[in-house]
Amino acid sequence: MxxxxxxxxxxxLALGGLYALMASGLTxxxxxxxxxxxxxxxxxxxxxxxxxxxxxxxxxxxxxxLAVTMPVMFVFGMIVYKLFFAREADNPRYxxxxxxxxxxxxxIIEGVLGxxxxxxxxxxxxxxxxxxxxxxxxxxxxxxxxxxxxxIGLIAFLWVILQYTRIGYAIRATTQNRSxxxxxxxxxxxxxxxxxxxxxxxAGAAGSLFSFVFTFFPGGHWEWLAILLALIVLGGMGSxxxxxxxxxxxxxxxxxxxxxxxxxxGPMTFFLALFIVLMVRPQGLxxxxxxxx
Amino acid sequence: xxxxxxxxxDNRDTTTSSGYKSRKYILGVIVAALALVPVLQWxxxxxxxxxxxxxxxIFLWITMSTSWNIIGGYxxxxxxxxxxxxxxxxYLAAMLLLRLDIPVFVTAPFAGLVAMVVGFVIGxxxxxxxxxxxxxxTIALVLVLRTxxxxxxxxxxxxxxxxxxxxxxxxxxxIPFYYAMLLVALLSIYFSYWIRHSKFGLGLRAISQDEIKxxxxxxxxxxxxxxxxxxSAFFIGVAGALWSQYVTxxxxxxxxxxxxxxxxxxxxxxxxxxxxxxPVVGAALVILATEFSESQFGGTELNVIGVGVxxxxxxxxxxxxxxGSLRRAGRLPALLDWD
Lengths: 293, 339
Hints:
Helix content of chain A: over 70%
Number of helices of chain A: 11
Oligomer: heterodimer
Strand order of the largest sheet of chain B: 1-2
Shape of chain A: globular
Largest sheet of chain A: 2 strands, antiparallel
Strand order of the largest sheet of chain A: 1-2
Number of strands of chain B: 2
Shape of chain B: globular
Structural class of chain B: mainly alpha
Structural class of chain A: mainly alpha
Number of domains of chain B: 1
Strand content of chain A: under 5%
Order of helices and strands of chain A: HHHHEEHHHHHHH
């Protein structure tokens, strides 16, 4: 049975990059603003539908569509932040209000997507989505490989922005201590807006890749929500390296469950991991403990 | 009714003013009128099933949101997954009916008890965390149960279970459900009222204000939270059981979807979190609006959008809900001041 192990690890590593990309924005937004963005998978779905539209109507390859979805979602994210979250910064019920607002946003997005695109299950099928490499007898889907590599590439790009640019310093300072950052002259309001935009841009990129690796329908984002939350809770909420490691660990684990126990129990890996990690070690592997306020 | 008599603050001694005196009678008249509605069904040849159905749905959701309010409103722990208790009640009653042929009207209180015990155990585990971690865990709970039931053929899997109709004439078939659901809704409101005015309820409200201070003041916060969570599960389990036979099926696609868990939250927020009357008002408004929009525009997508839009407007502009905002403005009619 463990003869499948190399195959499981290869598939897990390829998919892990995409999962990590999907989770990266979520963890960034939580780190900087303490917002648990329940609408994150819905944002990913918006981008997936844009990519699908571009692909079916204009035959634009999803990998090219990335150049559209990322900036569009970046702007969209900043607008969402301005409209719904900027004014709540000093609210004593901040956590509750922001979580429920993102929840409501997810519902609205689900409804709007359903209204425009109907409930049909969709995906894009560029040529590489059907092709695969064989290394010996190990099978590697080209779609998964591309998505995984681009995912990791974009996370590296985000990492460089955070480490070496001026806005990156500001974002990290705001993450570490909001009021202290303000004292030393960081415009936390603007920094938060840009960080939110960056996080949603990551969701945008993930959505384009998602469109040819997985299938999607308007209500499907809730399942992904639990999956992404599992990744970042395991890694430690707010930690980007944590999200990446959490993504690889849990993706490999779920591929293992798919293979050994049965396909339908794969998602259960994430749900149970989420539940258990929250109860046993809420701070995850690398994060600081999630606090009430 | 004298709407001029309003309580401006949390003053508990307002019960002597005339608006508050007449309140008892007005509420009594409303309940009596609700109890008499099915009588019209016998008297007239008109079919009242549409109205009975609407009222049953409203009673169901009053029960849901009033119960949710105990943990979500009084104690301030937001659960987005209280539909698991409706599912537990629904599936338990359905199985007892199908396997042992016991009617749901008999098993419903038992279903509530089981939901409460399960709630107690889950509460012991999940209430060790708070804030976002707790909220996330409630979503995880729904998805765990959903995956289990989807894949468990014993419980019908994805297709769920189909239940027989109760053997009554179409003219009468809704009436037992009407009275049962009305009773459950009234009991849940009374239970919520009782908690609100007990030492227990005071402790819960202290927890929602500042848990550490509450603990320091000697409130057994841990036990209080778990008890509140279990208490909030009881009537939801009962209502879930009744509902399963009313609609003659249980399936994961209706009981264990996120929208089901979101509704009591929306209703309670809209009406006023942490008040006794808020969830009742919120549930009635949301159901009336939903039924209206469905009959006028159809389509579940608009419904989903509507829930989201109303929720955001309430969150951003009236975070205290209708009852809370009116009280703050000193304009809450005595009729709706049940705190």
